[in-house]
């Protein structure tokens, strides 16, 4: 699609005040993409998300408005309030991790950025570590080509000898075989969990040395841990 770079540049400019970034682009073969609003398959999807705590201040300001104070899932609602209007502007279809039909965001991220999963189940980025996320995506009817688009190669966990994330969890919810969500949630409801991980964030996630400069601010850590506990 001609003008792909222009679309991405315009998207970046529109998203910048909200701390949301263009995280990657996936192109699909004929008939392979997710359904657009008109039912036809998308040919390209642009992933949108945060890098470190980039969204926390814009989201916090939005949440302070009285009309936004009572949302059950405020971060999802904020993401939709940001991304849906852009879908209309760019004649695209918006997708969100929280909405059915569930789209394969992790698979898309692996394709777009060459990422792999960490022991916590979170995709680990070679620069941002575990401190990033995907807030939504936009699907387009045409292939969007951007010069310089590519994938990243090295999986940080393959080059981490000590793997401190595997020994930091006080209830061994994070191991080499995966993340025990039930054990984590049970711990977060205890006094130790309430005074530890709930306040300071997941100890296993904090122990990862990759991308520590992008670690979420404490208020954002507490927000995510409270959501996990519930």
What does it look like?
The protein is an alpha+beta fold. It has helices spanning 4-15, 56-63, 74-89, 105-113, 181-188, 191-195, 197-200, 203-207, 218-229; strands spanning 21-27, 44-51, 93-95, 116-117, 123-124, 132-140, 174-175, 178-179. The protein has two domains: 2-140, no CATH class; 156-227, no CATH class. The chain is built from nine helices and eight strands. It has a four-stranded antiparallel sheet. Strands 4-5 form a two-stranded antiparallel ribbon. Helix 5 packs across helix 9. The N and C termini lie far apart (44 Å). The model has no long low-confidence stretch (mean pLDDT 93).
Count of distinct structural domains = 2
> What would you report as the Rg, rounded to the nearest angstrom?
18 Å
Percent helix: 25-40%
- How does the major sheet shape up? 4 strands, antiparallel
Count of DSSP H/I helices: 9
H-E order: HEEHHEHEEEEEHHHHH
The stretches of 5 or more residues where confidence is low (pLDDT under 50) are none
Query: Which band does the percent of strand residues land in?
Result: 15-25%
How far apart are the first and last residues' alpha carbons, in Å?
Answer: 44 Å
Structure classification: alpha+beta
The residue-averaged pLDDT reads: 93
Number of strands: 8
**Shape label:** globular
How are strands sequenced across the largest beta sheet?
Answer: 1-2-6-3
